[in-house]
């Protein structure tokens, strides 16, 4: 099999220059798990898995794949070696992983054969349909089947994916129809005392939050707020511009338009007469997602794409509104949209009407509940994979005498 149509080699792992010998990052002592991100669909789930491996099991994590799909911090990063024995042996000798997690369905026969020779267990996460990675295509009959024999376990996203892997040669007893890995959606933190204080201050008022709003979308947000104020005259908008430096100038512009405004960075509060509370600190996103039953994420209406992760408000119970341009969040927005767990708006009028509709607590709660279901659906498979990896690492360490 070949890579699915429309899937570029860059998406499958990223173009690269060969890494000269001795120029890999240093390998730390102790256990190490290698995660390979085959494409955007598995990137967020593997980032979450990497974070939990480090935080909960204390193991080092190596990640390979297209650079833009990998986390900036917390993991070791390297380039995926070519499908040649020389490159692979040099790579594996240097990193000596205790376990390897491939993703989606990218099959590398030479790599899997060498891992089997070294008795390094392999899992496939977010498994969809198996395909031979570019450069691995072969006229040799049965190359896919022989490769999949070396896989310890396949975590298929659904029954169809499970059947595809079994048909390609994976053993049925090693296939789990488990669903997707959990996305990177751990609840953003906030100071509980501050949340309680602001909740008491706004207890009698409906609140909505517009976050990461580019300047080009400020008029749309304010038009929607003006419309909604006719239905709920005590409605409070908490507005976070994409550029924190816009807070002061934006406050002055809105005051000139007749809005009652206060600015958090000036140590002002959302008093009862305030209609717009301007905030600018991204570290406080968790606070506003908790306080506001409705969140609009900017960038998708007039910008190039969403400026904030749509799963973050979903994880904290806030109903989501967004524009039609997903930017780098196409996969999570697609899942939210398929579950009717978010509302897409294509114009100022759409945003105004959607906001007015979600002022109904019942409707906003229904949307937020559906979103929470999407966000949390991968938790079980992530837990299963963490337990499996912990067991495999322990077994390998015992077999090798605990070296490296």
Tell me what you see in this structure.
The protein is α/β, with parallel strands linked by helices and 404 residues long. It contains 15 helices and 16 strands. The strands form three sheets. A seven-stranded parallel β-sheet has the order 3-2-1-4-6-8-9, with helices on both faces. The chain has two domains: 9-182 and 378-400, Rossmann fold (3-Layer(aba) Sandwich); 192-376, Glycogen Phosphorylase B (Rossmann fold, 3-Layer(aba) Sandwich), CATH 3.40.50.2000. α2 packs across α15, α3 packs across α4 (109-117) and α7 (192-201) packs across α10 (285-291). It is elongated and about 70 Å long. Involved in lipopolysaccharide (LPS) biosynthesis. Catalyzes the transfer of 3-deoxy-D-manno-octulosonate (Kdo) residue(s) from CMP-Kdo to lipid IV(A), the tetraacyldisaccharide-1,4'-bisphosphate precursor of lipid A. Residues 27-181 form the 3-deoxy-D-manno-octulosonic-acid transferase N-terminal domain. Pfam families: Glycos_transf_N (PF04413). It is found in: Cell membrane.
Count structural domains: 2
Classify the beta-strand content into a percent band: 15-25%
Q: Report the total helices.
A: 15
Termini separation? 37 Å
Gross morphology? elongated
Structural class: alpha/beta
Number of strands: 16
User: What's the assembly state of these chains?
Assistant: single chain
Mean pLDDT: 89
Order of adjacent strands in the largest pleated sheet: 3-2-1-4-6-8-9
Helix content class: 25-40%
Low-pLDDT residue intervals, each spanning 5 or more residues? 1-19
CATH class of the largest domain: Alpha Beta
CATH names the topology of the largest domain as: Rossmann fold
Largest sheet: 7 strands, parallel
Cα radius of gyration in angstroms: 24 Å
Query: What is the architecture of the largest domain at the second tier of CATH?
Result: 3-Layer(aba) Sandwich
